[in-house]
Amino acid sequence: KVIAALFIHLFFTAILFGVALAYGFSPTLYSLQIFYYMLCEFILVLGICYTTCAVQVFFRDLSQIISIALQLGQWATPILWDINRVPDRYKWLIKLNPMVYIVNGFRSSVYDKELFFSHFYSSTYFWIFTVALFGIGSLIFKRSKVHFADVLLGFVGGLRIVLGAECLSPEVSGALVLKQIGHLAVPELLGGHLLA
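^ that's the sequence the OP posted. Answer follows.
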């Protein structure tokens, strides 16, 4: 899904350049920094996905919490509002959001004509945060993946009780695959016996 969303992001980046061109901001060498900021965003999102996807198996309500956090994060990021309107003593709070670095980077690449390394502290904070999140996510994923089958098999056992023993016979063998049915992630056993 992250790579699929990247294509949508490229489309909207092209629209950004079209609007900038209409307002008299022609592309320059500074505009090539967009690819650097896209890489930053890709790695940040991948780190978030690694961290949350492993926990999602054990804590199914996490998707609701993530959706609320994303909405709050969107409004806390200076996309449609100017960070310079925030008093100086509170700016550091806004800059704790790693997306501020990316949004300001896109702005400076297209409009302000600034190089990405001119904001040393912002760059350093972003990369420390992102690498730490990516490392924590990888560690959580590696440590918990051995328990995925137990949790999912327990879920299948619960389905056998709810749906009846005839729906899933214990002698069915095959690999576990996640199938999305409505909002419920349901494992389905391959081997001729399908749940859908």
